[in-house]
């Protein structure tokens, strides 16, 4: 059962990572190495989150064995049973071991090896491979060697900085006479440094997510506010879409100039063809019309671009096309959301309690829409139940956020135990209810990961890092998210173990360590970090939550010129009005298209049958005429063949085999026959025996 639980979780986590990658990446267009690196990074991080509760329950079981001595091995308990079911008087805990093996127990030697492989693989990805692959994918080189060279140059400063810091620390430790550090201690120092950097970023993202996620669900229950925000986003997205189109036009104009200057006989023409293949199809057709002539590229008067400039142009084309496609898809999605919210606002006052769409789907309704999600059920969900469901979910998430903030500020206190999550785990530990322990651990760490990872998916660093759904995320952003996940997940798990008092380096309790903590090493090697930074720095989450609640970051960005949604801003009101007008314009355009399709459909239904009958009658009469004509023609030929004499037939054959007067057998070749089979120039005559269908070849 234990191996089955581990195997099922490994498979489920893989499909979860694959689903997210399919939603944000593009399997058909992006490079395989980019997709594989991102999938591996996401998969390892999600695997740590899902497997850690099993490690906690196994550690509690082994701790029970140590506390009560080596007693008889007891079979696993049923899920709903917390104490042994005996018909006699209850036995004392001292006489018999109450340690029941968890249903998902993993043998002791497996977890350390598993964590060691997962952790060091993720660290190699985030510090070595993903930065290199990130520069490789963003490079505009035309050959693999050129891309590798560009990636090495861009990462030279990045890698050199870390090597310089690590080398300085090694020299300092070697020179210091009182420090005698082994290889294990150096490994622990490196892990601690990576986790410290990750914890610094973790608290920032967690402080934002703990407030923003419950507030986003509460705002989603307010349809009026959500519609206004959609208008605001529409105005901003239209500006970005226009900017992307203008940027694409400028880049395509530069590509056109370079393509016209470099003809087919130029050595750099193959690079131009590679750039043209990355352009949209309509631009490729425009640029391929004037490529018929050759040009001497050795002419000193002409100036040609260099290979380096073509690499830069290639990079600009990739970026411009990606941005243009992303804004176009996002505009269609946002337009659909705005129309749906307007439909919800109209249907709220409906007395029939049936949801009516402004633009019904042209696809036939499935069995789910016909029998379960009917227009009446859709009205009750969209106009009544959905808002209350979001409000209830927001309240529950708010309680979780308050519990996390309180536990982050008090998890270092062991007597009394103030961390709420530590209290829950210890209550379940008394009865050895391993299922409750695993579920509590999973829900807690899943909520923490949701707050952190959702912030990673929401943040946007100009146009360099942006995770866009519907397959619109570029390779650079995908790999950057994989790097962030690999750097944030280990300190997040250590922080969770500290919240439930399973990390002795923070709680200072003599307890058995989890297998995950054992590979991290003892933090007591660096007492300043273990007793100072890891304990007091998470308290800053209170300040970050307050700042997020009052939208201080949004106000600062608004002052710096980055337009954000503010209720009391005049610029926000102007953008809302502009977005409303844009949505109204797109709605009218869709309405005209739909009306035109309805008119064509009605015309076809009304006059289509008459037209089909008329065409059928014409076709039958035409066939009858052709049949009578062919029969009369055969009769005429038979008549003339019977009446003609043999001498006349010989004369006709002689005339058909005669050559034209200006025929020259030397000048007529097979090549000329192939090229001029359809058109015949002056001075060359067809033989009398050729088919007269050749006259209409050009037609």
UniProtKB/TrEMBL annotation:
Q: Keyword Cytoplasm: yes or no?
A: no
* Alphabetically ordered keywords of this record: Coiled coil, Membrane, Transmembrane, Transmembrane helix
Where do the TM regions start and end? 6-22, 34-52, 117-136, 156-175, 187-211, 388-406, 435-456, 535-552
> Where in this protein does the record put region Disordered?
612-645, 669-699
State the superkingdom: Eukaryota
One Pfam annotation reads: LMBR1
Its protein name is LMBR1 domain containing 2b
Q: Which organism is it from?
A: Iconisemion striatum
Lineage start: Eukaryota, Metazoa, Chordata, Craniata, Vertebrata
């Amino acid at each position: 059962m234990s191996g089955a639980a581990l195997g099922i979780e490994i498979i489920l986590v893989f499909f979860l990572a694959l689903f997210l990658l399919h939603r944000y990446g593009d399997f058909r267009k992006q490079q395989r190495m980019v997709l594989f690196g991102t999938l591996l990074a996401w998969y390892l991080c999600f695997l740590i989150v899902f497997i850690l509760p099993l490690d906690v329950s196994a550690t509690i079981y082994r701790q029970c064995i140590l506390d009560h001595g080596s007693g008889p091995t007891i079979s696993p308990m049923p899920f709903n049973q917390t104490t042994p079911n005996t018909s006699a008087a209850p036995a004392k805990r001292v006489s018999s071991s109450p340690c029941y093996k968890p249903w998902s127990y993993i043998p002791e030697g497996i977890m350390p090896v598993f964590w060691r492989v997962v952790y060091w693989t993720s660290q190699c990805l985030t510090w070595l491979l993903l930065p290199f692959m990130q520069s490789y994918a963003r490079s505009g080189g035309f050959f693999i060697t050129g891309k590798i060279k560009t990636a090495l140059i861009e990462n030279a400063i990045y890698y050199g900085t870390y090597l310089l810091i690590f080398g300085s620390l090694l020299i300092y430790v070697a020179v210091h006479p009182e420090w005698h550090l082994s290889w294990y201690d150096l490994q622990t120092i490196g892990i601690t440094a990576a986790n410290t950097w990750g914890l610094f970023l973790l608290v920032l993202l967690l402080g934002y997510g703990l407030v923003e996620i419950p507030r986003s669900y509460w705002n989603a229950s307010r349809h009026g506010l959500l519609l206004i925000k959609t208008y605001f986003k529409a105005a901003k997205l239209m500006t970005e879409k226009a900017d992307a189109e203008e940027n694409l036009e400028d880049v395509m104009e530069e590509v056109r100039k370079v393509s016209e200057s470099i003809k087919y006989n130029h050595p750099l023409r193959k690079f131009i063809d590679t750039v043209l293949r990355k352009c949209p199809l309509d631009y490729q057709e425009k640029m391929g019309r004037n490529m018929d002539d050759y040009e001497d590229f050795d002419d000193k008067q002409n100036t040609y671009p260099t290979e380096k400039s073509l690499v830069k142009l290639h990079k600009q084309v990739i970026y411009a096309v990606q941005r243009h496609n992303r804004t176009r898809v996002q505009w269609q999605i946002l337009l659909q959301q705005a129309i749906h919210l307007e439909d919800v606002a109209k249907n709220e006052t409906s007395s029939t309690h049936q949801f009516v769409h402004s633009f019904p789907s042209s696809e036939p309704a499935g069995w789910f829409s016909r029998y379960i999600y009917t227009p009446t059920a859709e009205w009750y969900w969209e106009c009544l139940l959905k808002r209350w469901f979001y409000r209830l979910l927001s309240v529950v998430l708010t309680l979780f956020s308050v519990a996390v903030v309180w536990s982050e500020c008090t998890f270092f206190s062991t007597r009394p135990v103030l961390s709420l999550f530590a209290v829950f785990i210890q209550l379940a530990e008394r009865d050895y209810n391993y299922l409750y322990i695993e579920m509590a651990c999973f829900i807690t760490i899943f909520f923490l990961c949701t707050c952190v990872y959702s912030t990673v998916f929401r943040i946007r660093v100009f146009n360099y890092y942006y995770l866009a759904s519907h397959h619109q995320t570029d390779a650079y952003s995908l790999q950057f998210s994989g790097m962030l996940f690999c750097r944030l997940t280990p300190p997040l798990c250590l922080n969770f173990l500290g919240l439930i008092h399973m990390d002795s380096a923070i709680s200072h309790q003599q307890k058995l360590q989890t297998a995950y903590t054992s590979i991290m090493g003892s933090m007591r090697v660096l007492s300043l970090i273990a007793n100072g930074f890891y304990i007091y720095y998470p308290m800053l989450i209170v300040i970050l939550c307050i700042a997020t609640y009052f939208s201080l970051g949004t106000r600062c960005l608004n002052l710096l010129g980055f337009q954000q949604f503010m209720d009391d801003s005049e610029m926000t009101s102007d953008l809302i009005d502009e977005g409303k007008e844009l949505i109204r314009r797109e709605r009218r355009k869709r309405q005209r298209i739909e009306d035109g399709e309805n008119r064509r459909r009605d015309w076809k239904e009304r006059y289509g049958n008459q037209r089909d009958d008329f065409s059928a009658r014409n076709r039958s009469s035409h066939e009858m005429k052709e049949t009578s004509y062919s029969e009369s023609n055969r009769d005429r030929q038979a008549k003339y063949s019977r009446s003609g004499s043999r001498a006349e037939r010989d004369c006709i054959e002689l005339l058909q085999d005669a050559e034209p007067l200006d025929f020259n057998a030397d000048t007529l070749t097979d090549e000329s026959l192939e090229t001029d089979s359809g058109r015949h120039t002056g001075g060359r005559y067809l033989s009398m025996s050729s088919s007269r269908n050749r006259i209409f070849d050009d037609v």
